[in-house]
Fold each of these.
Amino acid sequence: MFTAPGFAVFTDLLAGWVLTPGRRTITRMVSVADPQGRRAHDAYHRFVRVGRWSMTALWRVLAVHAVAVFAPTGVVILDCDDTVYKKTGRKVNGTGTFRDAVRSTRARVVYAWGLNLVIITLRVTPPWGGCPLGLPITMRVHRKGGPTTVELAALMIREIADWLPGRALHLYADGAYATLVGADLPRTVVTSRLRRDAALYEPAPPRTGRRGRPRTKGDRLPTPPELAAAATDWVQADIDQRGTTVTRQLWHRDVLWYRACPRRLLRLVVVRDPTGAQPDDFFITSAALDSPAADPATIASGYTGRWSIEVTNRDAKQALGGEDPQSWKGQGPARAAALSLWLHTAIWCWYLSTHADTTSWRTRPWYRHKHTASFADALAALRRTLWRQRITAMSANPALRAKITSTLLDVLAEAA
């Protein structure tokens, strides 16, 4: 997917992205990746802005590799969400005003100017257990007046199904993507939150033999909170909440959500905290009603793992500076954002294959009981490896090198 010169620019750019301290602007990346100025600095800007390469093809290579390594058999678990990469300047291609989910509350909506990214991640259980990891495997930019976020998510799922022929997919998404349960996505089960005022119905009654068009839906049911309030046959179960076992009360009912999926029944699952500390959660799933995927405890446990995509969005912004590259024209803004997410997955793939059996993270006096690695630990390990290679290549005294470079490497690895 690259020419030979383009691939050289690509590898230098990503190496600079990993090693650059502070803001990850393209100019700062060039100063670290190519300090001798072997090529013009504008070559890196042109590569991102108008380079002849395909981000979709790059996503496909990484997605197929990640699934082969971390989910070689069974159902491929995916998560979907959208986030805003904040930008400054009114002429950045693809930007607009979108709701900032991080700063918004129920009482006050905050808007931000930037790129609205729809992201799908592969959910991976790390060797050390605990909270799963979310590895981005594809992304699209939602533009004002273009396809909706739901339409973009459906397009990406169909792409992933083509990349992974024969594999079954299970997509978890928040309530904004709930209508995907009726999108007829290939080999894909969709589980999502359900809005509390959703119009639910009984299944269509059998035909009466009278003349006229038969009914397509039954009587209107109460709202999900009203159904939960009237329910009596609750089942108590222990569910896995991101590595921690918690007790929840579960109730389910098969309903017709006519607006999203008028042709078949879906399963409504209500999850209640017995202590009352948390409000009831309402989920809807397109899984076959007689399949293990439709089990209420499985649905409740599976949806809690969707939090991994929220952690991914934070890490890509804070640890990798995904919002920092200053590219305004052409495909530059969208490609720069996509490369930050692509690099996030590539770093985890490298770290899990080389450090899975070792405690490579640094313990601190104030954090002595650390048992899991974070993305910052994986990034620091990669920085330490890359800096060691560079310093080794420039050093002439191997005996003195280890003594001098040990502290330097630790500082460079933690620089951000």
Note: The first helix runs from residue 4 to 19.
Amino acid sequence: MQTNLAPEFKNTTDGQEAEAILRKCVHCGFCTATCPTYQLLGDELDGPRGRIYLIKQVLEGETPTRKTQMHLDRCLTCRNCESTCPSGVQYGHLVDIGRKLVDERVPRPAGESALRWALKEGLPSALFGPAMKAGQAVRGLLPAALKNKVPAKQPSGTWPTRSHARKMLMLEGCVQPAMMPNINSATARVLDAAGVQVVLAPKAGCCGAVKFHLNDQDGGRAEMRRNIDAWWPYVEPTSGAGVEAIVMNASGCGVTVKEYGHILKDDPTYAAKAARISALTRDLSELLPAMVSGLQEMQPDMAQRVAASAPKLAFHPPCTLQHGQQLRGGVEKSLGALGFDIRISTNESHLCCGSAGTYSVLNPEIAYQLRDRKLGHLQDMAPEVIVSANIGCITHLQSGTATPVRHWVEVLDDALAAR
């Protein structure tokens, strides 16, 4: 796509990166077929091609409006379009740049600004845990919209105490320890069973995605640098700490940490460190094939035992896993090899469930339409449990169904515990 940058953008990092991305787009429109908001709303400007055109206009000097901002806000950043695009357009990076430029030029109403500030400052805050605990204590009295965001209190489970030669760092996350603590402890127990010790860096916190995608990009980068500083003593090549990877059990965090190298590429102090952190990062599902082999060796009868007792599972692959990280099929294949009856919908499994970080708070009408559409396809398989790989998807889907929605690692942990 031919692009003529306005003088104010010609020699900027954002302008040059955006121009390189725009030039790959041939405006073919394949992306519209897999865009959730275009499927719901039918508006060209609520699809990737239309949003790319809006961003191009801004970069060429046209003044954006509240309407421009609205269409960019409606994007889930699910990156389904990236999986579809035959030209390799990095739409996720482009829309981050576009939102930044538009928000610099279009003021938001006070109420909207206040909500976005509360989300970006509140979710990664140390106060989130106590606030969630208080919400769970009065959950039955909460209005439906708020109750949907406050899951019932969950036991955290025991943390393994054995030491292993193999060690991996794990990011606890900002909301997961308060909302669903068993996901982290289940991850530690499953890795322990596979001979891997989970290590936590006390000073690591939010991955930075919440602030970065709410257009506090400087705040997001600050959180990324803090995590790098927290992890560096464990992964620095001469440290001798023996940490071989950084494991992520929330795919939304995983896709962000894998992009630290890109986001901080122009930071002279952190660029090289960020690239190493990204290279060491693994989604938990990427460890599954090796874990399966080890578990099959230790427990030869596991598949038969699991097949006889485990619940029937329907798997919802989060967008951050299948589109952001381009990881598909691994969970279903590996859990199937361990005896689980796990299936993925043949209808629209590629589409977003509507959670998308803070999207379900900021755009609830669209988010709940997508949730109900997704649950309809999942319920067609009559599962006993729905499993996913991201805290946001799990919470969002659970708000619309009585069928239990869990992280797949919790189900695997249950099967190992039954042994």
Note: The chain has a mean pLDDT of 94.
